[in-house]
Structures are given as structure tokens and as C-alpha cells.
């Protein structure tokens, strides 16, 4: 990020409801690795029927087409076994996880506590609790979007939990495996409420500067069919919001789940058009750590079970429901391997 961008961080607006005390996004760019403590979410009787329907429809579907990538979200069946990869983590006594510290609601640095918190972080804690018996036995390493898979390949982290979309290209080229899906999202445009002629992912983008993160699925979609947009790439998605506030780009193209968080940060922006892709977030791990993938899938099975009282729904109500209503856990899809 250049000097103008850094100055622009201070321009990000207040947080509105449940966001008082936040002095801007600059606080999220502090240290790169901390251990944080979780806050329990209150229980409410909402979304019971939707959750039960999603889970009962196909809680354990089988997909035989993973190798052809017809179903990239198909993961290895769950298992509670402690294989080589899980034992490595147990011996170390810490789960090392690549996360974001700039994605509001998902993984961001709380300005009061200094801890990294969010929906993704609550899932990390559940994994640590299952493997190590301690939700706080985590070393967090912040990684930019374009470096997520490199960190996994090099062994710098055990996994990345950072709104990572599951897709064929990543399975085939990045040497990673994914857990079962834990959230459904899709690419959508974020624009200023005032003065923007962009109405959707269509011809209104012609000649406009559209910002997305390098290495993201947003970049892939824009390169496939950008409707004449001029693509601007940045290391991290939040940089796009800053550039749009500075007038350097006309729109942000990112997952609607992330864009909703950015719109919450800056109420002068909003989402336009429809979601143009369907994507699933998964926990990314090294392709050789199959026992760890299976273990994480068991954690997810437990994490999403229990209807409106499930840990997933508690985290969803705490972090996302106000800005992304109507969500339920995606049904898991497993390969037969």
C-alpha cells in the first residue's frame, strides 16, 4: 500500500451499531501473530427450521467426481483419528493458523483488546479445542491473500482459515486440500451510494476501475469477463475500500460476505446487482495432511450440529447475521476416498 493509501485508512467511517469505540481500520494492521481469547455468543431461537432442513437434506452426501472437479467442495470423510499431521500439532502444543486481520466481521483486530476476532476466528478456536483441548492454543499468522497457499506449501502454517474459496484451480495447482464447506458466498460489487453509474456486473463497468485482491476469485472472474472494466489489483481486499474512498477506483469486486463487512465499515457504500458466482469457503490445508483434513471435517460436523443452538449459529448471530441475514451452514459434501 502506498503513502496515499495509508493516509486513507483514517478516512474509513465509524462502525454504527455494536461498533462504538473503533477508531478506524489502522488498528487492524498491528502485529502479525497473537493468541486471542473467545467471547461466547448468546443463544436465540432463530433459523431452527432452515438449519435442520439444510443439515437433514444431505448431512453426509457422497460425491465420486472429486478428481474431475465436478464438485470441488467434496472433501474427505470426517474422522477423529490422530494421524501424523495431527500428532505434529499435538507435539508442538500449538495450532499455527494463517488468518486475516483486516476483514471486518471475519478476521480483524479488535481495537479495544488488540486480539484478532471474527467468524473465522471462532472456527479456529473450535479446531484448537478439539485437537489440543485448549481453544487458545493457537499461533495466528496474518497472511495476505496472494500468499495464503504459499504459506501452506512451505509449512509456515498448519492451515489457513481466511474466507478461502474452494475451487478446482486451487485444488489442482496450489497443492492444497480443503475441508468441507463452512460458508456459502459469491462475488458482488460494492460501490459508493452517491455518484456511481455502476448498477451491476454488466456493461456499466466499461471503462471503470474495479479493484480486487490479487490471487482472489474476484480477479479470476474479472479476467474471464470483466465487461470492459479496468482491473486494479491489491495485496489485501480492504485496500480496495481505501482506494475507493480516495477516489482511485470506482468499485470493489469481492465476496459478498466480505463486501457486507466493508459496507458496515463505510455506510456511504452499498452492494449493487446480484451475486454473480456461488462459492464455498473451506479450511485450506497441505495436500499431504489428509488426516488433518478429516479431523477438521469432524470438528465442522460437530460445529454445525444442533440447529439454532449450534456453535456455527452462535458465531453467525454474533458476527454476521445483522449484515448477512438468512444464512445457514452449507450441507457437507464428501468424496468416497
TrEMBL record:
Gene3D superfamilies: Periplasmic binding protein-like II. Keywords: Membrane, Signal, Transmembrane, Transmembrane helix, Transport. PROSITE patterns: PROKAR_LIPOPROTEIN, SBP_BACTERIAL_3. InterPro entries: Bact_solute-bind_prot3, SBP_3_CS, Solute-binding_3/MltF_N. One of its GO terms (cellular component) is extracellular region. Residues 52-66 have a biased composition (Low complexity). Residues 94-323 form the Solute-binding protein family 3/N-terminal domain. It comes from the Bacteria. GO terms for biological process: amino acid transport. Residues 49-84 are annotated as: Disordered. The chain crosses the membrane at residues 21-43. Belongs to the bacterial solute-binding protein 3 family. PANTHER family: ABC TRANSPORTER GLUTAMINE-BINDING PROTEIN GLNH, AMINO ACID ABC TRANSPORTER PERMEASE. This is Glutamate ABC transporter substrate-binding protein. It comes from Actinacidiphila oryziradicis.
